[in-house]
Design brief:
The complex is a heterodimer.
Chain A (H helix, E strand, L loop, with lengths): L1 H25 L4 E3 L2 H10 L5 E3 L13 H4 L10 H6 L3 E5 L4 H9 L4 E4 L5 H14 L3 H20 L7 E6 L3 E2 L5 H8 L3 E2 L10 E2 L2 H7 L3 E4 L9 H4 L4 H6 L5 E3 L2 H4 L5 H17 L1
Helix pairs in contact in A: 2-6, 6-7, 7-13
Chain B lengths: L1 H28 L8 H8 L5 H36 L11 H14 L9 H21 L5 H24 L6 H9 L8 H19 L2 H7 L3 H6 L4 H23 L5 H13 L3 H25 L8 H19 L1 H8 L1
Classes of the chains: A alpha/beta, B mainly alpha.
């Protein structure tokens, strides 16, 4: 029996060494993502075989920008268990969600890299670079940033002739602050965030009355449908709001383009430019 | 002579209550994050002022005031009716788990994304669940159940409804469900529109009509079940009608406002010293008191300074639970008698 055990241990060691050897040869870390936004960065910048798994909402077409591509990768539970089983070289996560999961993974010796919520286009550039460095494809990151800068340039070209005030409004009256990514996108096309008028620099909830009396020129919303699955969504369909802001006064930018900072912003900016053309006339 | 004095006091009380409700309803129209003078509010209500003022008063504050009035009234009325039916001062929809069960019905629709939140599916589900809960409660507790039995059965049903609600929340595909539903369960009238009024009001009115139509039976019942039967009251049918009336009213209310508790318990108690113990005469003043209470609570949540909005259901529970404890204190002898 002891000899058998020794034999098995020897085999285990050999396999480990072999594993190390291949990792060293390819030198590309294998990564698991437990956050929707890091999912998008990862899918854009990493080689497919570097991706061990994505977060639970990665295939949700409403929220995930690259939902179709996500179909080819395994979905994780978002918890710690399956990540620990996968033993990735790096776990990428959001800075504010799943605190307990991140802590547990760190305690178990996993390398967890956290990505903050970007507040400006500069933050976005930094995050793209950072992920590019992590997956060891910095050249792709540079190309991605080039695409983003080109989109910003295009957006400047069609900027609104007047600095209309726009309130970025989400469910339940959540207003993205003037110091946020949506404000940065708005200013990239020559629009002005109206959130300052409500005293919301970093974002917060606004009452229907406050919005109606502030009367920004346009609303920036993520959904143009007329279906309210809950009271939070019904807020945006309140008759008082619809009276002042019918579809022609609502700039529509789907959640999957605005929820994260990353490669989708190129599309978001182009979309914003198109929307601008629709409302500016 | 005594009766005429009592009658005069009743008329006086009812008139005063109507006046209070009207004043509170107007105050509700004048309260909100945007400051407006009472004259501006009245002007906007009548169709004057700027378009923004008109929209704020007529489409944001008016539906809210109407809902507070109607929901408060039906809760007060339901409480008085249940107390009359069971001849029991601790009876009320919230202690019986009716709003919690109605909430489960509505949550099921929201959590599973079965229908638009502004559709009639919501009150329908809420009413069905409210009916089921009161029906089961009265079936379990029996015909002439003591206080303890009713409260224990009520506690069991609210716990079950709470657990079922939590489960529905876990099974929901909507990632915002947890937040939405927990907000919703606290009970709120924030930013409701006339669509919500149209959703709730028909059921609230129907429930009120059913309950009011039984007022003579409540009076006969207060003389004892046998006497009532000899006076031609069909007690089984009466129970079913009261359950249906309470379910319609509470279900309709919960479907648009979430769970707002304890109004039904407090309102009849506030009126008893003024109106007397006749359950038939207690109905309308209890409804008016309920309306006044909820209007006042809904004004208070908008006035109390806070970083995020306080939910009106939280306020009614904060006031209602100590009141309930006081009632238990007063009924202690009857309760401990029930144990022995």
């Amino acid at each position: 029996m002891p000899s058998y055990r020794r034999w098995r241990e020897g085999l285990g060691l050999a396999v480990t060494l072999l594993g190390l050897a291949t990792t060293a040869a390819v030198a590309q870390p294998r990564i698991a993502s437990i956050n929707l936004c890091t999912d998008q960065l990862l899918m854009t910048l990493a080689d497919p075989d570097q991706i061990l798994g994505l977060s639970p909402y990665a295939r949700d077409v409403a929220r995930s920008w690259d939902a179709t591509r996500a179909a080819q990768f395994p979905l994780l539970s978002g918890g710690a268990e399956d990540v620990l089983v996968l033993k990735p070289d790096i776990v990428v996560a959001g800075r504010f969600t799943k605190r307990a999961t991140r802590q547990l993974l760190k305690d178990k010796g996993q390398r967890v890299i956290e990505f903050d919520v970007p507040r400006s286009l500069d933050d976005v550039r930094q995050q793209i670079m950072r992920m590019g460095a992590l997956v060891q494809h910095p050249e792709r990151a540079t190309a991605e940033i080039g695409r983003l800068d080109a989109a910003i340039e295009r957006a400047r070209g069609v900027a609104a002739r007047k600095s209309f005030s726009v309130l970025a409004l989400s469910r339940r009256g959540w207003v993205s602050g003037s110091d946020s990514l949506s404000a940065a996108l708005l200013s990239a096309v020559g629009l002005r965030s109206a959130a300052d008028g409500l005293g919301l620099r970093t974002g917060g909830f606004a009452s229907l009355e406050a919005i109606v009396s502030l009367k920004p020129d346009y609303l920036l919303v993520s959904d143009s449908g007329d279906y309210a699955e809950d009271e939070g969504r019904a807020f945006l369909l309140h008759p008082a709001l619809e009276r002042f802001y019918p579809a022609s006064k609502r700039i529509m930018l789907p959640e999957r383009l605005l929820a994260c900072g990353g490669p989708m912003l190129t599309e978001a900016l182009d979309r914003l430019a198109t929307e601008l053309e629709r409302i500016d006339r | 002579m005594v009766t005429t004095i009592a009658a005069r006091r009743r008329t006086l009380t009812t008139t005063a209550l109507v006046a209070v409700v009207i004043v509170l309803a107007l105050a509700s129209l004048g309260t909100g994050p945007v400051r407006m003078s009472p004259l501006t509010v009245l002007d906007a209500l009548a169709g004057g002022g700027s378009d923004v003022q008109q929209i704020i008063v007529r489409e944001i504050r008016l539906p809210r005031a109407i809902l507070a009035l109607a929901i408060g009234a039906i809760l007060g009325l339901s409480g008085a009716a249940l107390q009359g039916l069971l001849r029991n001062p601790l009876a009320s929809p919230s202690l019986f788990g009716a709003p919690q069960s109605a909430a489960f019905g509505a949550v099921l629709i929201i959590a599973l994304g079965l229908a638009d939140i502004r559709s009639y599916a919501l009150p329908a589900a809420a009413i069905a669940m409210a009916f089921l809960s009161v029906f089961v409660l009265l079936a379990v507790a029996g015909r002439s159940a003591g206080l303890l039995l009713l409260i224990l059965a009520g506690l069991a049903i609210s716990s079950l409804a709470g657990a079922a609600t939590a489960l529905a929340l876990n099974l929901s595909p909507n990632p915002f469900a947890a937040l939405e539903i927990s907000f919703w369960l606290l009970g709120s009238l924030d930013d409701r529109s006339f669509r919500h009024v149209m959703l709730a009001l028909p059921f609230i009115i129907a429930g009120a009509i059913v309950l009011m139509s039984q007022r003579a039976a409540f009076r006969a019942l207060s003389l004892g079940e046998e006497t009532a039967q000899s006076l031609g009251v069909h007690v089984g049918r009466l129970r079913l009608l009261v359950i249906a009336g309470v379910a319609l009213g509470v279900g309709g209310a919960v479907a648009v406002a979430g769970t707002i508790g304890f109004i039904g318990l407090i309102a009849p108690h506030l009126m008893r010293p003024l109106i007397g113990h006749d359950p038939a005469r207690l109905l309308i003043p209890s409804a008016l008191t309920g309306a006044a209470l909820l209007l006042a609570a809904d004004i208070a949540v908008r006035i109390i300074p806070s970083t995020t909005d306080i939910k009106v259901g939280v306020l009614t529970s904060l006031i209602g639970v100590p009141f309930f404890l006081y009632l238990i204190l007063r009924e202690r002898r009857a309760l401990s008698g029930g144990v022995a």
